[in-house]
Amino acid sequence: MDSSTLDLQPLHRGAEADLFLSRLPPWKVVVKRRVRKAYRHEQLDASIRKERTIKEASAIRDAKIAGARLPSILGLDIERSTIIMTFIDGVVARDTIDTMSNARRVSLLEELGRQVGFLHSAGIMHGDLTTSNIILPADEKPFMIDFGMARKSTDHEDHGTDLHLLQRSLIATHALDPTSSLKRVAKGYREIVGEKMAKSSLRKAAEIARRGRYFAIR
Amino acid sequence: MVAMAAGRSRDPLAVLVSGGHTAIAVHLNKRWRIYGETEDITLGNLLDMFAREAELPSPGGVAVESKAKEGQTLLALPYTVKGNDVAYSGLLTAAIRLLKEGKSLPDICFSIQEVSFAMLAEAVERSLVQTRKKEVLLAGGVAANKRLREMIQLVAEDHGATFHPVPIEYSGDCGAQIACSGRLAFESGVTVPVPESFVNPRWRLDEIDVPWIPRP
After folding, report:
1. What is the pTM of this model?
2. Contacts of A149 in chain B (CB under 8 A)
3. What is the distance in angstroms between the CA of the first residue and the CA of the last residue of chain B?
4. A216 pLDDT band (50/70/90 cuts)?
5. Which residue intervals of A32-73 are DSSP H helices?
6. Which chain B residue shows the shortest CA-CA distance from A217?
């Protein structure tokens, strides 16, 4: 579809894409547009933006089919490397996880584990799974957003990376006990992917954490 | 440290590009923390190894840069960025294949620079957005490359950061640099008894305490 006629309200400027709010009645929508990078050769830039837009859109579609909760795609404007998706009205998990009650946090962590489980069982890696990329609507059922780094993968290393990044963001910016929060995430994850796959992914996550260099990123 | 002084920078996102390093680092709590790096060969390795394969004179980076100036056409090469990390070995293999297929050497050199530098620029951009640093320091032998400088400068300015390229004379391998680090370490009380000292060419930047860098 042609996204050039939409009325765009700036929402966020990321490293790779600009996000805007708009309306596509009856929906309130988010318009994600990968912008031209002046440093990149024009031809290279165009092919990267196109390729990534398609890749992100297909990851979103596959994750949806697998049963994960995430925004729905309403339109694609490949020519302008733009994805139009439903706006999720809620709060960012990062800003609220510290202040919620213990019982609600426990159920949130388990549910996050299940959500990641849906992705991985469908062979998708999120690639940037932090509490900044999780939105909690009024009913507190988490939505995962920003599939800009997502890709197809059935590699335990990639699944471990997702779990490790989530775990790191839980303990780095939140006053959570690492062992018990990981246990909750692992419980939900195991429910979806099964014992065998959960074991390999979780083992990889622990291994990545031990390599240490990822901890330096904090 | 030499690079920071020579580049007139206090609290940079440091981009180190040489034969030994391709890394993006920030200074925090007495250490350099790696934000992104190469997963395999360095940018310096890539240019040197390709130059050797193409029988270009040494130093390879300079030869590739000068050939690239005559290049016009962008040839397809793998562009691999994973988060803030880059990987160059696939690009090297593909570039050597193009050479064996008889593609124009200037075009290959041009394409190697465009693709490999853009990969690094993207990783730098992501790190810059995450760290919100206001200075970008570019150091190491490959920092002498004009096209790379131009790209990193564009990234820095696009995010409201100032660009601090290290002057060429301080950019390459340099004994004074090592001596200077040694002196600063000594003055900060970091010493190693001679019998326990040895050569370690693979010392990781983020495994060394650098208490002498002033807190920004």
Report:
1. 0.84
2. 83
3. 13
4. very low
5. 42-65
6. B35
